[in-house]
Specification:
This protein has about 290 residues and is α/β, with parallel strands linked by helices. It has one domain: Rossmann fold, CATH 3.40.50.1820. The chain has eleven helices and eight strands. The protein has an eight-stranded mixed beta sheet with strand order 1-2-4-3-5-6-7-8, sandwiched between helices. Helix 2 packs parallel to helix 11 and helix 3 packs across helix 4. It is globular, with a radius of gyration of 18 Å. The two termini are about 20 Å apart. Pfam families: Abhydrolase_1 (PF00561).
């Protein structure tokens, strides 16, 4: 990295200002954004179901990007990335590995949420040498209890949101109570902070294929997670309707030496509701 102060001043640390870039590899053009100081091990963010580059909470990304090289990306067939979404989590993990290697990295930290956490687990099991540290939030293991019900809950909440003209994430990620509702609205507003160069919404067919992959993952045999030896931080809310909170505890039991944080009175989006508490914890974990 240049020691020239001017170069340092040009580091982008606000996610809303990070330009969208592309890289072509393995017949796919991947869309990604990067920010934060270059050098050191980058933190690659694995996004959730039906989400694109615009779905990351800037209150999580920005504090991490103040100290780390951060990369977010659209996996194959998602948002602006080309190709079609694979119907298995393992194939998504292979695509993510292809993308990471194409950027020239042989070691990364992974910050994952929900579906991204499933992809991250599959990636660590299949490509263990690629990952130094792992953050798993709002997610669960292959064969996890009730994981295959994600689709039903998702469709139900999308319907509820459509009827009330709200964003489905307000129902899916947050409790519908006095604490959850304002937290949900604040989160949805933060996702609008970026006003230019917005990503392409995830196509319905891509979303349906992702759901199919999650269902398959939920019904597949359990994977031996003792193979994950990387330092792992696990977090969720105590009332996750999408990926039941007990699955975070299950991951914690099965990944040796992992740390677990469960936030009170919050749902699937617990880390977004408690971003002011969680971002410093994630930073401390990555720096250790």
């Amino acid at each position: 990295m240049s020691t020239n102060n001017h170069a340092q001043d040009d580091v982008i640390t606000a996610y809303k200002d990070a330009p969208t870039r592309t890289i072509h590899t393995g017949g796919v053009t991947y869309a990604y954004r990067e920010l934060g100081p270059k050098g050191g091990i980058p933190v690659v963010f694995f996004v959730h179901l039906a989400a694109n580059l615009d779905n990351w909470d800037p209150r999580i990304i920005d504090p991490i990007a103040a100290q780390h090289h951060v990369i977010t990306f659209d996996n194959r067939g998602v948002g602006t990335s080309t190709g079609t979404v694979p119907d298995s989590i393992e194939a998504m993990a292979d695509d993510a590995a292809t993308f990471i290697k194409a950027l020239g990295f042989d070691k990364v930290d992974i910050f994952s949420f929900s579906l991204g956490g499933m992809v991250a687990q599959a990636l660590v099991v299949k490509h263990p040498g690629l990952v130094r540290k792992l953050v798993l939030t709002g997610t669960g293991p292959a064969g996890g209890k009730d994981m295959d019900k994600v689709a039903g809950v998702t469709y139900y909440d999308i319907l509820r949101a459509t009827v009330t003209l709200s964003d489905p994430k307000e129902f899916l990620f947050f409790n519908r109570n006095a604490t959850g509702k304002p937290a949900a609205r604040a989160f949805v507003e933060r996702l609008k902070e970026r006003t230019t160069d917005r990503d392409k919404p995830v196509a319905v067919k891509a979303f349906q294929t992702q759901l199919k992959a999650i269902k398959k993952w939920g019904r597949s045999p359990a994977v031996d997670l003792s193979r994950i030896t990387q330092p792992t931080l696990i977090a969720n809310g105590d009332n996750d309707r999408m990926v039941p909170s007990v699955l975070s505890e299950d991951l914690h039991r099965r990944i040796k030496g992992s740390e677990l944080i469960i936030y009170p009175d919050s749902g699937h989006g617990g880390i977004f509701q408690f971003h002011d508490k969680f971002a410093p914890v994630a930073l401390e974990f990555l720096a250790r």
